[in-house]
Write a structure and sequence with these properties.
- The complex is a heterodimer of chains A (about 850) and B (about 525).
- By secondary structure, chain A is of the alpha+beta class.
- Chain A contains 17 helices and 47 strands.
- Chain A folds into 3 domains: about 260 residues, Immunoglobulin-like (Sandwich), CATH 2.60.40.1760; about 325 residues, Alpha-Beta Barrel (TIM Barrel), CATH 3.20.20; about 80 residues, Immunoglobulin-like, CATH 2.60.40.
- In chain A, the strands form 9 sheets. In chain A, strands 6, 7, 8, 9, 10, 11, 14, 16, 19 and 20 form a 10-stranded antiparallel sheet that branches. In chain A, strands 1, 2, 3, 4, 5, 15, 17, 18 and 21 form a 9-stranded antiparallel sheet that branches.
- Chain B contains 8 helices and 15 strands.
- In chain B, strand 8 and strand 9 form a beta hairpin.
- Chain B is elongated.
- The two termini of chain B are about 35 Å apart.
- The chains are: A alpha+beta (about 850), B alpha+beta (about 525).
- At the A-B interface, helix 2 and strand 44 of A face strand 1 and strand 14 of B.
- Strand 44 of chain A pairs antiparallel with strand 1 of chain B.
């Protein structure tokens, strides 16, 4: 029934199918708006999670066989044995450049190969020499390089400790939770429930390979704050999971997701950051199968007073966070990013999976979307509406209804009969369009795309070897196997102007439903026993989305002969998705809490490399109050991806439909965005160049100030802009924390100066967007806001020089053509400014 | 740009434009020319500041109101004036000056952007003139038609008012008639009721007598059957042979229990048995058909369950039929069953029982002649009364409809009255749309399928000064997760009454364009002061 819900939720067939579906609907929704949790598994309902979670901390059955140790210049290998079943594992340990340690554990002799994630790392990470410091029968000590960092391998039971000086940074298997289900023949052992077959609701997973889960625990002494592992609709600071389910990483199309819980959403980045006032580290668990992450803490239950008492009595144990990762298949391949600063963790992670794609400048402008703009005339009149009301925008979007019967790469012959005419009309105004291209392909022998994929054998196969079929927007659909390079190359070729009829250079792409969403599949996604060549969908699930995104971005690059930067938005993602474009937080709702959660959701993504993030402005489901809509525009104007979007069944909400006062408020918010475009562009260049996030939690810039560690109702853009949007209904004021005892902050609207290191109460009206510029910074802006970013290309810049207490300031300005890859050939201007002694100079 | 203390210094870094000499500063309309006197300091039009004249159009914004940069894009709130000779002059926002997009038809907004603009003012002027001419012609003809419509509406209204008066008079007569016939009817019904009751009572008595007789006969039969030794007495032992009579039905019919039934005696004679009989007749099973439950006996468990379930679930309380004995009026009962078609037919066991009972008592004897005559007379009075009442209702309906129509807002001169009870259709690629003004809007798939209501008449919804330019139809079929469907009908002047387009700008909110002469305004004389004369 879940698929039926999904169908109804996007209201697809409603009008034509009438009363029969209306009955279903009542059953599906039951009058509530919340997610139907029963459609998605809990750990208890996911056999491997239940099995692994049943293992409690204690002495590990694993022992390191030191006599098998081999140490070359670049790696150490060592066998581990499980004393309970005598199965041997192979441990590989690498020291990587840039203060990263990689730990790989696989079966020594697996029955058949186990899946290792390809295409996510940008290259085989370069190694550094490891050297043996000491060895005895209890273990070995290796040097990890200059900073007195060592890794201690203990033999019985097996555990790894990474230490620096006298401090333990991280311990692996210290709680004895290493689990590695070896591949086996079915008759070999006692069969537990769910090992060889598992049923959830009406779906049976055949599991021909039997149990194959892996899990490992990590202890983080001195750490009370961990972040990351998106995507979850939860706070920035991750919560302990002892009393409920672990955080789940399994890309799913969750209908009307619920806030503040660990349920899986559309994307998964298995990267966690740990932070305290001394150090920031990260754990990157490179596994694409369904994954659960448990977090516990020895201080979580304590009150502030309790902690203080511990401190006064000197009886305190060191705070510690313990983490445990559980994945359904594959191997353990984990990168320990040892910081020590947040910036270094970002660069360490970027060295593994790459940085944010440098987007075309226009994509940093405002995007106007709706499911759906009805026809060309509708597009024309919305476009004209922006001019009439003098609101800038760069992109107008078309959702699924623009196609000929949900056949992507086509246009509805009546409603969008002359797409080139429409695109030319936008081009005349220096504006652009995005059209959706989803990965499910209508099974229809009159549809070229289907016929080609089918004849080339590019579809994902079901467990019996036939083409996998699922139900999605077009009805019965096939799912191209994007894990195949030849399939991706073919897909990319479909974006060529001579293939994609009606496309022009100002048409860009949106990949939705790429979890993949399968309305009639288990948990609204693909069956785990579907086949991608030799591998099961189980192994590659969380990669499907990134592959779709990758192939689409490649297509946009190729159609211009490699000249133009692509812009592709995706809903599903994985580690590395930052390399291919933007993501958004999926189908949210027009509720104040959804506005609030957009901040931690995008911050969590930013911390793990994905800077180009946004939430649907106004909320996708339901209809926002005017106040909520205005506040959302004001917030979205200061978030990286700024797009309004709305469900098909909601009333229209173009910015001018709420009376002149509100039109003016929205216009002002969008115009503020456009004045800051030079700064946004520079931040994205920096993100592309260094891996530093565009939108940042405060603790990233003020890592020693514990007051910043859990803040997620305000954020920084780069180092220099602090944003505390109004996200409360009927707010009369907000309290913003201005960090930095030695800093000063200037209100960007009034230029009023405030000292750092304080909670500042700011009275607000409907026009207020509390934003502050850091004293000591120079921010470039463009004050001539025009119809679109392209219209502002040749306009002058205005530098906002905010002096610090030493009456100095620094800043930079990055300029290039805004849309090609020529910056790679150094065709850009990158100037640094400094202001001191009342003189502005530039180098 | 103002320098703001020493904390924030907005600096102009790049850019700059060439100021080109023209007769008046670029972007200034003739009407404001006097404020821009060359070689004199310029005072911002809001009076806030005075600057040297060379700061006018120097591509740097000095005046808060933007008035020092009428010809550049420097001020965020400025306006640029295009003369547009041959068409009509216009102001555009300063942000559209030199943005590479041609906004003024005389190309003056793009003097420094490299945009390739063509002067299209004459062409546009000509087109506009033609367009206006066409509209004026339509308006003229439409307005003539409208005058006719107003006349027709006036006549129509008068006719209706006359008709209404007639109906009202007629109504009074009919009301009187109904009252008279009601009295007649009531007078005829009284004797009818009494005669029927008499008849019924007689039959009841007769039935009771028959039943009593039957019961006695059965008692004697049973007595003979029980009296195994034919001594004229029923003994404890003889009674015990009928285990179904066990009072507590616990499977053992003891001597004491049997004795209890025999009122403490060991045996009873026929006279005493009469009192015993009343206690055992419900349970007694005749020896000749011991395997069949006797009439009135509790049916076996299974059947009972079904019956009771049906009683409680399929019948609302008030529909549970009365006990069969009292259920004389069989015809009525059957009518009820038909009416309650929503409920399942009663279970067969019940019907069977009922039949048996009816068979026992036999049908009610026909009415005697006298009673039948009274019934016939009453029926005739009833029929006549109903007839009269129906006629009155019809007239009342007509009055209501007329009053509704007369009181309808058909525009200031009732010019829209002709649309009443008409319908207009538009066929698109997918649907047939149907507008019945002042009634409803609907949509029907072209290739089969049921009709969907897009709203029923709500109100006139135009702007205050022209309320009759928009109609609103509301409360159509509900939308999933959305409001119920509604339609806005925009009226424009046309010679014909036609639906020209429909769209669904927002989900379930439809827009219909509708032309009608009734909306046409008296055309202004076309050649009076066309704006393009202003600056030639």
């Amino acid at each position: 029934m879940s698929w039926m819900c999904s169908v109804m939720c996007r209201g697809l067939f409603l009008r034509r199918m009438g009363p029969v579906l209306l009955v279903w609907l009542a059953v599906c929704l039951g009058g509530t708006w919340a997610v139907d949790k029963g459609n998605f598994k809990t750990c208890e309902q996911s056999a491997f999670c239940k099995r692994q979670r049943a293992i409690k901390p204690g002495e590990s059955p694993y022992r390191a066989l030191l006599e098998t140790m081999e140490l070359t210049n670049t790696r150490l290998t060592l066998q581990l044995i499980n004393d309970n079943n005598k199965v041997r594992l192979l441990l590989e340990l690498y020291r990587l450049q840039g203060n990263i340690t990689r730990v790989k554990i696989n079966e020594l002799k697996p029955l058949k190969p186990r899946y290792e994630v390809p295409d996510v790392l940008i290259r085989e990470p370069p190694t550094e020499p490891l050297s043996l410091l000491s060895q005895d029968e209890n273990g070995v000590v290796l040097s990890l390089g200059p900073e007195s960092q060592r890794v201690i391998v203990s033999a019985r039971p097996f555990r790894l400790d990474i230490v620096e000086g006298r401090d333990v940074l991280m311990s692996l298997n210290s709680r004895g939770l290493l689990g590695f289900e070896h591949l086996r023949m079915q008759e070999e052992e006692k069969v537990e429930d769910g090992m060889w077959e598992e049923t959830f609701k009406s779906h049976t997973d055949s599991k021909p390979n039997g149990p194959s889960a892996v899990s490992l625990d990590f202890s983080l002494p001195g750490v009370e704050h961990v972040y990351g592992i998106p995507e979850h609709a939860d706070t920035l600071k991750l919560k302990t999971t002892d009393s409920g389910d672990p955080y789940r990483l399994y890309n799913l199309d969750v209908f009307q997701y619920e806030l503040y819980n660990p349920m899986a959403l559309y994307g998964a980045v298995p990267v966690m950051l740990a932070h305290n006032a001394q150090r920031t580290t990260g754990i990157f668990w490179l596994n694409a199968a369904e994954t659960w992450v448990d977090i516990s803490s020895n201080t979580a239950g304590k009150t502030v007073f309790g902690k203080m008492l511990d401190y006064v009595q000197g009886s305190s144990e060191t705070p510690q966070t313990d983490v445990r990762w559980i994945s359904e298949s594959g191997i353990i391949d984990v990168f320990l990013m040892l910081g020590p600063t947040p910036r270094e963790v970002f660069s360490q992670y970027a060295s593994l999976t790459g940085t944010q794609a440098f987007p075309p400048l226009a994509s940093l402008g405002y995007h106007q979307c709706r499911w759906n703009y009805n026809d060309q005339e509708d597009v024309r009149s919305v476009d004209a509406g922006f001019d009439e009301h003098d609101i800038p925008y760069d992109f107008i979007w078309l959702d699924i209804e623009h196609t000929d019967g949900k056949r992507y790469f086509t246009w509805d012959p009546h409603k969008f009969a002359s797409p080139k005419e429409m695109l030319q009309g936008l081009m005349d105004k220096k504006r652009k369009m995005v059209a959706i291209v989803d990965p499910h392909i209508k099974i229809d022998t009159n549809y070229k795309i289907h016929n080609e994929i089918s004849s080339r054998g590019f579809y994902v196969k079901n467990k019996d070897g036939g083409d996998y079929e699922g139900w999605c927007w077009p009805g019965s659909a096939g799912y191209p196997d994007f894990t195949r390079p030849d399939m991706r190359a073919w897909w990319a070729s479909q974006f060529a102007y001579d293939q994609y009829e009606g496309a022009m250079e100002n048409l860009y792409t949106w990949n939705d439903m790429n979890e993949p969403s399968v309305f009639n599949g288990p948990e609204v996604t693909m069956h785990k026993d579907a086949l991608h060549g030799a591998w099961e969908h189980r192994d590659v699930h969380n990669l499907y989305g990134i592959y779709v995104h990758m192939a689409t971005a490649q297509g946009l690059i190729e159609r211009s002969g490699g000249v133009e930067r692509p812009f592709v938005l995706t809903r599903a993602f994985f580690a590395g998705s930052q390399r291919y474009g933007a993501v958004w937080t999926g189908d949210n709702a027009a509720e104040w809490d959804h506005l609030k959660i957009s901040i931690p959701m995008c911050l969590s993504l930013s911390l793990v490399g994905i800077s180009f993030c946004g939430a649907d402005v106004g909320g996708f489901f339901k209809s926002p109050s005017t106040e909520l809509l205005v506040r959302w525009y004001q917030t979205g104007a200061y978030q990286p991806f700024f797009r309004a979007h709305a469900h098909l069944d909601t009333p229209r909400r173009e910015p001018w439909l709420f009376g002149p006062e509100n039109t003016a408020l929205i216009r002002e918010a969008v115009r503020q965005r456009y004045t800051f475009l030079p700064y946004w562009y520079q931040l994205f260049y920096l993100a592309y160049h260094t891996g530093e996030p565009v939108m940042r939690p405060l603790w990233v810039e003020y890592p020693q100030d514990p007051a910043t560690f859990a803040l997620d109702d305000e954020f920084l853009l780069g180092r220099d802009l602090l944003v505390h949007p109004v996200t409360e209904e009927g707010a009369r004021g907000v309290t913003a924390y201005l960090p930095g005892k030695d800093e000063v902050w200037f209100d960007i609207h009034t230029f009023q100066k405030h000292n750092g290191g304080q909670n500042l109460y700011i009275p607000v009206t409907m026009s207020s967007i509390p934003v502050f510029q850091r004293g000591g910074s120079i921010i470039p802006r463009k004050l001539r806001v025009r119809r679109s970013s392209a219209c502002m290309e040749d306009d002058p810049y205005t530098l906002y020089v905010a002096l610090n207490n030493q009456r100095t300031a620094e800043g930079e300005l990055y300029i290039d053509d805004g849309h090609t890859f020529n910056y790679e050939k150094k065709e850009f201007i990158h100037r640094r400014f400094s202001f001191s002694n009342n003189v502005l100079s530039s180098v | 740009m103002v320098t703001l203390g020493h904390f924030v210094l907005p600096l102009l870094l790049l850019g700059g434009a060439i100021t080109v000499e023209v007769q008046r500063p670029r972007g200034v309309p003739l009407s404001k020319r006097q404020f821009y006197e060359e070689d004199k300091p310029f005072t911002c039009l809001d009076g806030s500041r005075t600057v040297a004249f060379d700061r006018v159009n120097d591509d740097y914004c000095d005046c808060p109101d933007g008035s020092d940069e009428p010809g550049t894009a420097a001020c965020p709130n400025g306006n640029f004036h295009c003369t547009n000779a041959g068409f009509r002059p216009a102001f555009i926002p300063s942000s559209r000056v030199n943005d590479g997009i041609c906004d003024c038809c005389d190309t003056t907004d793009e003097y420094n952007s490299g945009a390739d603009c063509q002067n299209t003012c004459r062409e546009m002027g000509r087109k506009e003139k033609e367009e206006l001419q066409k509209l004026a012609e339509i308006a003229e003809e439409g307005f003539l038609l409208k005058k006719q419509l107003i006349q027709e509406a006036k006549h129509g209204l008068e006719e209706k008012k006359t008709k209404l008066e007639d109906f009202q008079k007629n109504k009074k007569d009919l009301e009187a008639n109904v009252e008279t016939l009601r009295t007649v009817k009531e007078a005829a019904e009284q004797p009818e009721r009494e005669a029927k009751e008499r008849h019924l009572k007689a039959w009841e008595e007769q039935k009771a007598a028959i039943r009593l007789e039957k019961d006695r006969a059965r008692m004697v039969e049973v007595l003979l059957e029980l009296d195994d030794d034919a001594d004229g007495f029923v003994s404890v032992a003889e009674l015990q042979s009928h285990s179904e009579l066990d009072p507590d039905s616990d499977g053992s019919f003891t001597e004491a229990e049997a004795q209890g039934l025999l009122r403490g005696m060991d045996k009873v004679d026929a006279v005493v048995f009469e009192t015993v009989w009343n206690n055992i007749k419900e349970k007694y099973v005749s020896e000749s058909n011991a395997d069949i439950p006797p009439p009135g006996e509790t049916p076996p468990d299974e059947t009972r369950d079904i019956v009771s379930e049906n009683d409680s679930e399929n019948y609302p309380d008030e529909d549970i039929p009365e006990e069969e004995e009292d259920d004389d009026d069989e015809d009525d009962d059957e009518d009820d069953d038909v009416d309650d078609g929503d409920y399942k037919a009663p279970p067969t066991t019940r019907t069977d029982e009922k039949k048996k009972d009816d068979d026992d008592d036999g049908p009610m004897p026909p009415y005697d002649q006298e009673t039948q005559a009274l019934i016939d007379a009453a029926q005739k009075a009833r029929d006549e009364f109903n007839e009269a009442e129906k006629a009155l209702r019809e007239v009342e309906d007509q009055i209501r409809n007329l009053e509704k129509e007369i009181s309808f807002d058909f525009g200031p001169s009732s010019e829209f009255a002709y649309l009443y009870s008409q319908c207009y259709e538009l066929t698109t690629s997918e649907y047939v749309y149907r507008l019945c003004p002042f009634n409803k809007v609907s949509q029907k798939p072209k290739f089969g399928g049921s009709e969907t209501s897009l709203g029923t008449w709500g109100k006139w919804a135009g702007p205050e000064d022209n309320i009759h330019s928009v109609m609103k139809y509301e409360n159509g079929m509900g939308c999933w997760q959305g409001p119920s469907r509604s339609t806005t009908v925009k009226l424009t002047c046309g010679k014909e009454t036609v639906v020209t387009s429909t769209s669904e700008p927002s989900r379930c909110e439809y827009l219909m364009e509708f032309t009608s002469p009734a909306i046409c305004q008296e055309p202004a004389r076309f050649d009076s002061g066309h704006p393009d004369h202003e600056e030639l």
